[in-house]
């Protein structure tokens, strides 16, 4: 597994080394090492409760909010340890954006949803630039044409798929480097799912993208690299095509052929 | 594809959905439903009945308190005052003029002239002050002979409204016959303060006292309560110490209000030597009482904000304080407002703690500031209900109406604000 890490030609955007997460005495993540680069969408697959979401949330320190959670090991963003005291967690979360399982737009207007991040980080010196950021983000999230005439409508009045794209627009509005997606399509119908997947394709290369999914077809469709998690460990990490056609591990093969999970 | 053999289920009996036993069970279930509906309806009807009874009785009794009985008194002012000019009754010279002309004497003489030697029994003992007020309001009256409408004695007032002593009834009949009596809206009740003569007392002093006290309470209890709730929910570590604080706050909300009065007496009056009977101290004491209610309501409202909103805000890099002020509090405000309304309504109706800090003072002028002696509406009601003079009965009911109107207005404003916050999203 480590050979695979070392063979990466470009410098990874994020890398984790021997990461362990404890919830109280329970070890939820048992030593995971992984590299995430800019060019590939990485998918985390695995059965429920295997720790893939927990691990994803360590990448932008969302686990900090759980008092009993404790993280060990190193996670770096551009070589800088994100758990070091010099790392500002507020800035980290702007650089490593997140899209959640359930669409969670703020109960504000569509415009304010997207503009919120740029506003609090002071990214736009004036209204015109803020408008531009909002428009660009919505265009990139593939939502602009659907909402451009009703930017002042409530974000929560949109359909589920539109809400999720609004959340993606909100995440990219602060111009992050990495986007973490925690089962972004699990609450959506197939058409909305297809749109999100298409969007992920378009965002690839501009942002490093990590997506957690239960849906193996989705992992195969959107990702270039796949990591298979099981019982808190990362069983296998490699090119998506290899994982799905020629897995090295018995457990991976059993999972992707539907033997358990 | 799992190879585990299925445990063979025992041969199940077919449920008889149409059988008698099942039909009976269904009938019983519907009967229970009907019973419950009936009980609920009965409870609602009973409480509506009480409310209707309260309103009818209060308005029936209290409405009279807003009406005053006046008798006419004709005075030839140029003769009585020695022809003073109207501008002698305007501001810079008013005090000097009032000192030189004795309004009370003018009043007494006019009464004697018009109604005979014991004519004074027709009028309230303070009627001459009403005469003075009318003169000051309209100085041109001194130019001629004028008929003034002045408040009658409370015996005649009651004869006009209800039943009174035989003498008063007779006097009232005589006045009515002569067309020298009328009933009019009692402005004095809305603009005056406490007094000894029920015909001349007013509620404004107590209303203003309540207003100032409530403002002090709100400005203290609301921010402190909300900040405490935010700290406890969002920042405080969860440990034994914070558990203890939580239990204490819950207990504090249940402490009888008179205990808070004692606390206010000991802390604000004795230890901090604040002025007795002041609205400031009343507000502080009631704030102590209201704060726990607001803290509990605010904590529950903050807890009810979906965690997904917090995550969303943190996910775009909002700092904890931004999460709280941009997202959590706006969503929690309606709940916080509900708790505040309940707490403030309780504070407004509170009498016991204010008696402890001396707000039962007899104050004949409305308070002008935080430290002036003041009383509040419920205490005023309590004081009037204790008066011997029968004329205070209707004043008590009228004061209760004013208190209820104040309460409803306060709640209506709060509900309006709450709805505005809610529909903003």
DSSP, total strands of chain B: 3
Helix content of chain B: 55-70%
Low-pLDDT segments of chain B = none
Shape label of chain A:
globular
Q: How many DSSP helices of chain B? A: 17
Q: What's the average pLDDT of chain B?
A: 85
Q: What is the H/E string of chain B?
A: HEHHHHEHHEHHHHHHHHHH
Helical proportion of chain A?
Answer: 25-40%
- Strands side by side in the biggest sheet of chain A: 6-7-8-3-9-10
Oligomeric state of shown chains:
heterodimer
- Beta content of chain A: 15-25%
Instruction: Kindly report the spatial arrangement of strands forming the biggest sheet of chain B.
Output: 2-1-3
The Cα radius of gyration of chain B reads 32 Å
Tell how many strands the DSSP assignment of chain A holds: 10
As for the CATH topology of the largest domain in chain B, it is MetI-like fold
Structural domain tally of chain B: 2
SS field, number of helical segments of chain A: 11
- Named CATH architecture of the largest domain in chain B: Orthogonal Bundle
- N- to C-terminal distance of chain B: 50 Å
User: Uncertain spans of chain A, ≥5 residues at pLDDT below 50?
Assistant: 1-8
Short description:
The complex is a heterodimer of chains A (261) and B (425). With 261 residues, chain A is α/β, with parallel strands linked by helices.
Q: Could you explain how this protein is built, in words?
A:
- The complex is a heterodimer of chains A (261) and B (425).
- In chain A, 37% of the residues lie in helices and 25% in strands.
- Chain A has eleven helices and ten strands.
- In chain A, strands 6-7-8-3-9-10 form a six-stranded mixed sheet, sandwiched between helices. Chain A has a four-stranded antiparallel sheet with strand order 2-1-4-5, with helices on one face.
- In chain A, a hairpin with a 2-residue loop joins strand 1 and strand 2.
- Chain B has two domains: 63-185, no CATH class; 204-421, MetI-like (MetI-like fold).
- A three-stranded antiparallel sheet of chain B has the order 2-1-3.
- The two termini of chain B are 50 Å apart.
- Chain B contains 17 helices and three strands.
- Chain B is mostly helical.
- The chains are: A alpha/beta (261), B mainly alpha (425).
- The A-B interface holds A 60, 62, 65, 67, 90-95, 97-100, 102, 104-108, 116-117, 120-121, 154, 156, 167, 170-171, 173-174, 258-259 and B 1, 237-238, 306, 308-319, 322, 326-327, 331, 425.
């Amino acid at each position: 597994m480590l050979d695979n890490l070392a063979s990466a030609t470009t410098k990874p955007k994020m890398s984790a080394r021997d990461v362990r997460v404890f919830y109280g005495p329970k070890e939820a993540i048992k030593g995971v090492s992984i590299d995430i680069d800019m060019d590939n969408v990485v998918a985390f697959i695995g059965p429920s409760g295997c720790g893939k979401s927990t691990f994803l949330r360590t990448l932008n320190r969302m686990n900090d909010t759980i008092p009993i959670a404790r993280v060990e090991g190193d996670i770096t963003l551009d070589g800088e340890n994100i758990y070091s005291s010099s790392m500002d967690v507020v800035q980290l979360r702007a650089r490593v954006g997140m899209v959640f399982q359930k669409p969670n737009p703020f109960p504000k207007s569509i415009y304010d949803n997207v503009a919120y991040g740029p506003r609090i980080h002071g990214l736009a010196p004036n209204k015109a630039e803020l408008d531009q950021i909002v428009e660009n983000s919505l265009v990139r999230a593939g939502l602009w044409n659907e909402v451009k005439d009703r930017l002042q409508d409530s974000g929560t009045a949109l359909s589920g798929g539109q809400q999720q794209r609004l959340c993606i627009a909100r995440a990219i509005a602060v111009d992050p480097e990495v986007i973490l997606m925690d089962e972004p399509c699990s609450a959506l119908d197939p058409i909305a799912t297809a749109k999100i997947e298409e969007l992920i394709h378009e965002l690839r290369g501009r942002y490093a993208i990590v997506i957690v999914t239960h849906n193996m077809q989705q992992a195969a469709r959107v990702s270039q690299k796949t990591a298979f998690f099981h019982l808190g460990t990362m069983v296998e990490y490699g090119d998506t095509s290899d994982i799905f056609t020629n897995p090295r591990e018995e457990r991976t093969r059993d999972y992707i052929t539907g033997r358990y999970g | 594809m799992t190879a585990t053999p299925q445990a063979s289920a025992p041969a199940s009996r077919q449920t008889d959905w149409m059988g008698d036993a099942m039909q009976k069970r269904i009938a019983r279930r519907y009967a229970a439903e009907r019973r419950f509906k009936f009980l609920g309806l009965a409870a609602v009807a009973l409480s509506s009945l009480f409310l209707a009874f309260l309103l009818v009785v209060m308005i029936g009794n209290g409405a009279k308190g807003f009406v005053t009985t006046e008798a006419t008194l004709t005075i030839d002012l140029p003769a009585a005052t020695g022809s003073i000019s109207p501008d002698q009754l305007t501001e810079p010279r008013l005090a000097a003029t009032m000192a030189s002309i004795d309004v009370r004497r003018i009043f007494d003489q006019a009464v004697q002239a018009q109604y005979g030697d014991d004519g004074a029994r027709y009028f309230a003992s303070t009627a001459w002050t009403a005469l003075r007020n009318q003169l000051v309001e309209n100085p041109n009256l001194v130019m001629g002979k004028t008929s003034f409408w002045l408040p009658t004695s409370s015996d005649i007032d009651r004869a006009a409204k209800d039943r009174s002593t035989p003498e008063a009834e007779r006097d009232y009949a005589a006045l009515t016959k002569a067309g020298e009596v009328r009933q009019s809206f009692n402005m004095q009740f809305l603009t005056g303060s406490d007094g000894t003569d029920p015909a001349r007392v007013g509620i404004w002093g107590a209303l203003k006292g309540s207003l100032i006290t409530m403002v002090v309470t709100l400005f203290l209890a609301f921010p402190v309560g909300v900040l405490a709730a935010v700290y406890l929910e969002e920042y405080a570590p969860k440990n034994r110490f914070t558990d203890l604080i939580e239990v204490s706050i819950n207990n504090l909300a249940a402490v009888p209000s008179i205990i808070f009065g004692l606390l206010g007496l000991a802390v604000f009056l004795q230890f901090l030597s604040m002025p007795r009977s002041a609205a400031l101290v009343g507000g502080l004491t009631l704030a102590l009482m209201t704060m726990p209610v607001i803290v509990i309501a605010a904590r529950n409202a903050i807890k009810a904000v979906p965690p997904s909103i917090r995550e969303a805000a943190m996910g775009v890099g909002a700092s904890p304080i931004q999460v709280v002020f941009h997202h959590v509090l706006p969503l929690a405000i309606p709940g916080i407002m509900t708790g505040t309304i309940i707490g403030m309504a309780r504070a407004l109706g509170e009498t016991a703690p204010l008696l402890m800090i001396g707000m039962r003072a007899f104050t004949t002028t409305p308070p002008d500031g935080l430290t002036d002696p003041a009383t509040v509406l419920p205490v005023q009601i309590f004081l009037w209900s204790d008066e011997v003079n029968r004329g205070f009965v209707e004043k008590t009911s009228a004061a209760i109406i004013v208190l209820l109107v104040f309460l409803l207005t306060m709640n209506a404003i709060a509900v309006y604000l709450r709805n505005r916050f809610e529909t903003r999203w």
